[in-house]
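SEQUENCE-TO-STRUCTURE ENTRY
===========================

Subject: a protein chain together with a token-level encoding of how that chain folds.

Sequence line: the amino acid chain in single-letter code, read from start to end.

Question of interest: how does this chain fold, as expressed in backbone structure tokens?
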Amino acid sequence: MNFLTKIKTRAQQVNKTIALPEGEEERTLIAANEIIAEKIANIILYGNKEIILKKATDLNLKNISKARIIEPENYDRKEELAQIMVEMRKNKGLTKEKALEQLLSPYYLSTLMIKINEVDGMVGGAVASTATTIRPAFQYIKTLPGISVVSGAFFMIIPDNSFGENGVILFADCAVHPNPTDKELAEIAVASAKTAKSIGGFEPRIAMLSFSTMGSAEHEMVDKVKSATNIAKQMQPDLIIDGEMQADAAIIESIGQKKAPNSGVAGNANVLVFPDLNSGNISYKLVQRLAKAEAIGPVLQGLAAPINDLSRGCSASDIVNLVAITANQAAGLF
């Protein structure tokens, strides 16, 4: 059973309800149709019901009739949600009128429905920016206890299975935090370890990446990665983690042995933590295109509920995969 099949099988078993706020978008509808057919999750689509059903008919998507369709302006618990929002953000000057206005956005509405346990998780971003998709989560869901930063990880499934964990490598952060501090980078490493273990199903071996390997270069950017590695070890002493190291030293055994002969990670890493968003985002896109790898994610790490953001260049199959991961998260497997 391959990596994706395992994730989908677990999703089928837990029977969670996942919100898709971009219900009128074609890729989202195609994905929802497949998700329902495969019983990966129960689906809620947001948007104009007439438009959604017309597009489903035009695309011959017969399972869309089994989805719950919510038109935000007609949702019957808006007053209740608005009151929750005002209580949480009254110190920011939020009024009930403004809260009701925000609830016309499917991103806010689906997030608040998670807050009241009517929905188990949300996947959006096929149309909207990352900021639009996850801003409501930052405001109303917040982060897990002990975690101050949200990050985004990708499971990269590489055709050459000699890399990582039989061809699977977790990349982070590739989606959210532009320039983490050493403490934040350590939190990203710890969160990535949890993602690798509970969603990926493998024991994480974490390489903290840099342009230096074990002191081969001196710079404040190298110092940050060194410090982050030490902080992560203090946060979770049983982590298998090492750094700083260059990417080739992290994943190629012969190079790892030369550059970091005393490392328990070098040459055998299955989790790569990048020092900033520039390097992480560029790297995952290059690996995806040049190595013809499949990029599953981003899986958002650190939030107190499973809310995930797609790339606007995603395919329908990307949406299916991320919904399956979100269902796993909602079941407490994350």
Q: What stands out?
A: The chain has two domains: 3-142+304-333, 151-290. The chain has a mean pLDDT of 94.
